[in-house]
Specification:
The complex is a heterodimer. Chain A is an alpha/beta fold. Among the domains of chain A are: about 55 residues, ADC-like domains (N-terminal domain of TfIIb), CATH 2.20.25.90; about 210 residues, 3-Layer(aba) Sandwich (Rossmann fold), CATH 3.40.50; about 180 residues, 3-Layer(aba) Sandwich (Dimethylsulfoxide Reductase, domain 2), CATH 3.40.228.10; about 110 residues, Barwin-like endoglucanases (Beta Barrel), CATH 2.40.40. Chain A is about 30% helix and about 20% strand. Chain A has a 7-stranded mixed beta sheet, with helices on both faces. In chain A, strands 28-34-31-33-32-35 form a 6-stranded mixed barrel. A 5-stranded mixed beta sheet of chain A has the order 2-1-5-3-4, with no helix packed on it. In chain A, helix 9 packs parallel to helix 19, helix 10 packs across helix 18 and helix 13 crosses helix 16. The radius of gyration of chain A is 29 Å and the shape is globular. Chain B is an alpha/beta fold. Chain B has 3 domains: about 210 residues, Rossmann fold (3-Layer(aba) Sandwich), CATH 3.40.50; about 80 residues, Ubiquitin-like (UB roll) (Roll); about 90 residues, NADH-ubiquinone oxidoreductase 51kDa subunit, iron-sulphur binding domain (de novo design (two linked rop proteins)), CATH 1.20.1440. Helices cover about 45% and strands about 10% of the residues of chain B. Chain B has 18 helices and 9 strands. The longest helix of chain B has 18 residues. The radius of gyration of chain B is 22 Å and the shape is globular. Classes of the chains: A alpha/beta, B alpha/beta.
């Protein structure tokens, strides 16, 4: 439709506000409370405009265009009104510097004197220069304020990690409250009190970390003033350059902007135009990344074991030492562990080295979903990359199974939330009750390990009169129908632990038209009968035309798996490698990921290539310092198969080098062919030749923002996959008097290579400690346990330590621990899990004495 | 004596009990509406009766109902606005306290007409006793089969829920009221969308005042024509005027719409106390711009009062005599608004609290020369520039006082 803004004719879309349309056409309208990602709000009233033929003034941020609308955004009267309103807003904000006649001089000479935390003017404010108030004051040319200003004298909230809240600077635009509610679905922040006493706060003014805030930082990013500021940036000067890159911690692949001064990272924040994240991130990328890169545990020099002690040596010496040693082993005696948080280039070179030089077939990665790989092969379906993150928001029905998605895959959660606010129905299926499940239409809290029963039951309820020809492949249809007919409703309901009406409601929801998604986390395939779960879900998805999305955690798991294609040996998961090592055949281990500490006995020679020191490295014979992804360039493949280029942001710390460089040096030293790489682009050129999935990849195109996916498949394509014969697993082993609790393992998604974020970073430890053992309130009461107490979890064969976390996430009788492949032995739940081969265990809990 | 409708039986003992109410032909209109009339017919009657909303804005009730979309899958809701927060207004409390069944009858008629199965009565938090009485009345109505699964034995079902507010004036604004029922802070929503399309829990919603709904039984009983003719001017029916201030007999007076203001004050409320002279009148709750003593020969009609640059509002007449300082009036108004602004829009939140501060300063004898200019500037900054009518109302009320009593305020500052 056509509208006129300031005598200029504009073609407008009817779902955009006048303010957005004006901005797109380079017409400036001042505004403070509006934010492009949030719904219209209309509180600051600065964006008022006049509309021809209508009485009064209208906030352009909440008015939508109508055919022929004639809008005036600027006139002496509007200017005067806006100045009056701005004057009022400034009464509640320290304003001396904003209207100071000398401010230009001050900007030049007093760039940082912020050594106090109380802010009484711009020169003391961390947001000086980026503050939106300053911009508006300049635009409206406000020179004086006729009323004395009001200092709220509100205590600065400093007890939370990562950022401070100074409500003396707040202008009550409500962006933080809205982003927390609308986009993240958390609603920790809220308006409190009323009228002139209105302020932003939390329930009973508690600290954010006590209220379940996960510190995604979205509120800090939308704050127009200095009210919410990152702690670590508070006393820093302004950056001298900004670089964009991709976060390499988890599988989302958020695009970040990194601020640098003198070669040091000041801050990382999500880019608004990031194709995946659109201005959102999580605590890992937003706050932890900066701490990770310059953490005291970073390894700066190559280390080799001399006289039982690790000593710093030169690269030459280290490479010589390792090459000499590795030459002495046969291929079958060597095992390699590959991190899935290294780039495609690093992964390719590493595997080429393992395959061509070490000639080993024992290469594993910490793929969290080995069953998934196996299932995909068996049933000839491509489960790993058949979706686009963006499409999730268009769904009408979403099943979310066994996943703490808002923490492990935050961007996926944001998309799910978008779908929910568009009216989609969300069904949460989990034996645990995560905080996000309050957004669910229906929440099925099932008994652990009964997922396959539930899906078979729903399939039975839906099958009804369904005919054979509706199925894309009829091979197993009769078998399937017969199988389902044998399921007894009441028995199945009891096994699953839900009521009949819940099951019926779920089936009803699934029967609705529209795009459907089954999204599951690692817990779904983690049980010993993961394949049964998958089969049952897969068949149901064929029956209801739903799409299946497995969630992965590590930044480049998909890339690592793809780059293994030219080499025969890949696709072992960590548990399998663990088993091979325990068998005692392996004499040498080369890992650029975690190493199991308890594997030392039979192994003679261990090489670890990592960026961080941890206790487990003490058993290594050589340690090679690898750079983090911020110090080199390369490509990652995210959870949806999107190939993204990350850039070198700072120089490598100390003597650390990129992974590909280290392995290439070793390859050359061991007389391997084709290791003469000078830069990652040369490796990518080779990958392109060898692996067809990468044939379109080019660094230049990626830099330009061209989207390249692996295995591109449109959402609407017809399904041709087959039904798979299903066998239901045995029900969970019974608890007994001696071992009265069931232990569940949750995959820890807060790791970057050898570095455990939620153990090493103080703030993250506060919100999700890797050593927490979560116990239900009632159970804790019975055992007389209090929060934070040291306890020991014992199964029949193994034990590990941890700290009590009383929580409502776990139901009574269930205990939850997170597992890490490189945790210290005493604290390692993973050890217990790998050892028993079981993924739910009867256990008992003892106080540590 | 003019005919009374709503307050006719207020003198009857135990009128709030259903057996007493039934003896006075109670629930006959609702029964007739549900069993004998088509929703379309009722709507036409209400439209023809020209009943205008008694909450303050005076929007024709029939037209409001007609806005509700007919063919939607979603449930529809009725929210009865019993928040009665406008200072000087106490008519709804009288209705609910003395004759709660009259309101329930109105609710049944409205719900049946629009096709609503759930009605909320959002009652002001301070009205604890009234809320209890309402709940008791609702229980009686359920027991008699007037509410619940089969209303009067028909297929129509209706639930009525009493929801108590927490004492915020802004929750009387219809969208803030909806937010409050949803369990959120009572902040007004952006309009459009209007509640008729997206209201309570995102469903089509009618929001009506207590007095508006209490008129419904009479429209059904008398027919639109007779009801309309009760009014002296354009609008139909009678109006309950809450008269307070320095009059001899303050209280509620049910009189035909369009009666003159002078008549109410001097003929019905007994004139000014102690024979003092009238100074000013606020004709429709404190949001209504003030009228000076020589402006009271006016008909209490929505349109005529708007012509006189005031408004009928909730028909709460506050009478001010010559002994009352206008500064005190201003103080009360500004205290109220600075306390009751929801705090969202900056002009209203900051403007009201500043005007209040300035007024208090003048009151303490520390007034300054440019104070008047500042008050006017702050107040005109609110009018037409805020999200909900609270800013408009505060701004207009303050501006009118400043304009009409400028000399008195100037002299206050000088002395």
């Amino acid at each position: 439709m056509k509208i006129i803004i300031d005598k200029k004719e504009i073609i407008a879309e009817n779902n955009k506000t006048i303010l957005d349309i004006a901005r797109e056409n380079d017409i400036y309208i001042p505004s403070l409370c509006n934010h492009s990602k949030l719904s219209p709000y209309g509180a600051c009233r600065l964006c008022i405009v006049e509309i021809k033929g209508r009485k009064g003034y209208f906030p352009s941020c909440s008015i939508f265009p109508e055919e022929g609308m004639n809008i005036k955004t600027d006139s002496p009267k509007l200017k005067r009104l806006r100045r009056n309103i701005l004057e009022l807003i400034l009464l509640e904000h320290p304003n001396a510097c904003l209207i100071c006649g000398e401010k230009e001089n001050c900007d030049e000479y007093k760039s940082t004197i912020r050594k106090v935390s109380e802010v009484t003017g711009c020169v003391l404010c961390p947001s000086n220069g980026t503050c939106e108030l300053q911009e508006v004051v300049n635009a409206l040319n406000l020179k004086s304020i006729r009323f004395p200003s009001l200092y709220r004298d509100s205590e600065i909230r400093k007890n939370d990690p990562f950022f401070d809240r100074n409500y003396n600077l707040c202008i009550l635009c409500g962006r933080c409250v809205r982003v927390c509610h609308e986009i993240r679905g958390v609603s920790v922040l809220s308006f409190v009190y009323r009228g002139s006493k209105t302020t932003i706060g939390t329930v009973l003014d508690w600290n954010l970390h006590e209220l379940g805030c996960q510190f995604c930082g979205a509120c800090v990013d939308v704050c127009p003033t200095g009210a919410l500021t990152e702690k670590s940036k508070k006393y820093e000067q302004s950056p001298d350059r900004k670089e964009r890159t991709i976060c390499g911690i988890c599988s989302m692949g958020c695009e970040l902007e990194v601020e640098i001064r003198n070669g040091r990272i000041l801050s990382c924040y999500p880019r608004k135009d990031g194709p995946v994240n659109e201005g959102q991130a999580c605590v890992r990328g937003r706050f932890a990344l900066k701490e990770i890169v310059c953490h005291p545990k970073r390894i700066h020099y190559p280390l080799i074991r001399k006289k039982k002690k690790l000593e710093e040596v030169s690269w030459d010496e280290a490479i010589d030492f390792i090459a000499e040693k590795l030459k002495t082993y046969k291929g079958s005696q060597v095992a390699c562990i590959l991190s899935s948080q290294v780039s495609c280039e690093d992964s390719y070179v590493f595997q080429k080295f393992a395959n061509n030089v070490l000639k080993t077939k024992n290469i594993g990665t910490i793929a969290a979903n080995p069953d998934l790989e196996r299932f995909s092969q068996k049933s000839d379906c491509e489960l790993m990359s058949n979706f686009r993150i963006r499409d999730i928001s268009k769904a009408k029905v979403i099943f979310l199974i066994d996943s703490n998605v808002s923490v492990s895959n935050p961007i996926i959660w944001i998309e799910i939330l978008k779908a929910v606010s568009n009216g989609a129905k969300l069904v949460v299926i989990d034996s645990l009750r995560w905080p996000y499940s309050r957004q669910a239409t229906i929440c099925l809290q099932i008994k652990p390990g009964t997922e396959s029963y539930l899906f078979a039951l729903i399939a039975k309820l839906l099958l009804g009169e369904e005919q054979e020809e509706n199925f894309p492949n009829t091979e197993y249809f009769n078998f399937y129908r017969e199988f389902l007919s044998k399921i007894q409703m009441s028995e199945a309901l009891e096994a699953i632990g839900i009521e009949e009406k819940e099951a019926k409601k779920t089936a009803e929801i699934l029967n609705e038209d529209g795009l459907k998604y089954f999204i599951f986390g690692s817990g779904f395939t983690q049980y010993s009968w993961g394949i049964s779960n998958l089969t049952s879900l897969w068949n149901l998805s064929l029956q209801t035309q739903a799409r299946v999305i497995p969630l992965t955690f590590e930044s480049n798991l998909k890339g690592v798996l793809q780059t293994s294609r030219p080499f025969s040996a890949m696709k072992k998961d960590f548990a399998e490698i663990y088993k091979i090592i325990s068998d005692g055949k392996i004499k040498a281990l080369y890992s650029n990921g975690p190493i199991p500490l308890y594997s030392k006995k039979s192994i003679e020679f261990i090489v670890v290539q990592d960026s961080f020191m941890n206790e487990n490295l003490m058993v290594a014979d050589a340690v090679l310092p690898a750079s983090t992804f911020l110090e080199t360039e390369g490509t990652f493949v995210n959870v949806e198969g999107r190939i993204q280029k990350f850039n070198k942001v700072i120089d490598p710390l100390g003597e650390s080098r990129p992974d590909w460089w280290i392995v290439a040096q070793l390859g050359k030293r061991m007389r391997g062919k084709g290791f003469d790489y000078k830069k990652p682009s040369e490796i990518m050129a080779e990958i392109k030749r060898k692996i067809p999935e990468f044939k379109n990849v080019s660094y230049n195109q990626l830099k330009k923002g061209i989207e390249i996916f692996i295995n591109h498949k449109e959402t609407g394509e017809k399904r041709e996959e087959k039904l798979t014969p299903l066998k239901l697993p045995p029900l969970l082993m019974d608890i007994n008097e001696e071992y009265p609790f069931i232990l569940l393992f949750e995959y820890n998604s807060d790791i970057y290579r050898g570095f455990v974020l939620n153990r090493e970073i103080k703030g993250m430890k506060l919100i999700r400690n890797s050593r927490w053992i979560q116990i239900n309130t009632e159970d804790a009461k019975k055992l007389e346990l209090t929060d934070g107490e040291s306890i020991v979890v014992e199964s029949e064969l193994r034990r590990f330590k941890g700290y009590v976390r009383i929580s409502e996430v776990v139901p009574s009788g269930i205990v939850l621990a997170s597992f890490l492949s490189n945790e210290e032995k005493d604290f390692s739940a993973a050890h217990m899990m790998f050892f028993s081969g079981l993924k739910t265990l009867p256990i008992k809990i003892k106080r540590e004495c | 004596m003019t005919e009374k409708l709503l307050t006719k039986h207020f003198g009857t003992e135990n009128l709030f009990r259903i057996d007493v109410y039934l003896k006075l032909n109670g629930y006959q209109s609702a029964r007739k509406a549900v069993l004998e009339m088509m929703p379309e017919e009722i709507l036409n009657e209400v439209k023809a009766a020209n009943l205008r909303g008694r909450g303050g804005a005076g929007f024709p009730a029939g037209v409001k109902w007609a806005f509700i979309p007919k063919d939607v899958q979603k449930p529809k809701y009725l929210c009865v606005n019993a928040d009665e927060g406008e200072p000087g207004t106490f008519k709804d409390r009288y209705i609910m306290n003395h004759n709660p069944h009259l309101l329930l009858e109105g609710i049944i008629i409205a719900s049946f007409c629009v096709g609503i199965n759930t009605a909320f009565i959002y009652i002001r938090g301070e009205y604890e006793m009234v809320a209890k009485r309402l709940e008791q009345a609702i229980a009686e109505a359920y027991a008699n089969g007037f509410l619940g699964k089969k209303v009067f034995g028909s297929d129509f079902h209706l639930e009525v829920i009493v929801h108590r507010g927490a004492g915020a004036y802004i929750c009387g604004e219809e969208t803030a009221l909806l937010e409050s029922i949803e369990g959120k802070p009572g902040n007004p929503r952006l309009k459009p969308p209007f509640p008729a399309s997206i209201g309570l829990f995102k469903c089509p919603t009618v929001v009506n005042n207590v007095e508006t709904l209490s008129n419904m039984p009479f429209i059904i009983a008398f027919g639109a024509e007779k009801f309309r003719r009760l009014g002296l001017q354009n609008d139909g029916g009678t109006r309950i005027f809450s008269v307070s201030g320095k009059v001899k007999e303050p209280g509620i007076y049910e009189l035909p719409t369009g009666i003159s203001l002078r008549e109410i004050i001097f003929n019905h409320a007994g004139g000014i106390q102690e024979g003092k002279r009238l100074k000013a009148v606020i004709p429709g709750g404190i949001s209504a711009p003030i009228l000076k003593a020589d402006e009271i020969d006016i008909h209490m009609d929505f349109d005529l009062l708007i012509e006189a640059k005031s408004m009928l509002g909730s028909a709460a007449i506050i009478v001010i005599d010559e002994d009352t300082s206008i500064l005190d009036v201003l103080k009360i108004i500004t205290t109220f608004y600075s306390h009751e602004s929801c705090g969202k829009c900056s002009p209203c939140r900051i403007g009201n609290s500043w005007i209040h501060k300035i007024v208090m300063r003048i009151k303490e004898g520390k007034g300054e020369k440019d104070d008047i200019e500042n008050i006017i500037r702050l107040a005109s900054n609110m009018v037409g520039k805020t999200l909900c009518p609270l800013g408009d109302a505060a701004g207009m009320a303050i501006l009118t006082i400043m304009e009409k009593f400028m000399k008195e305020i100037e002299s206050c500052i000088e002395n």
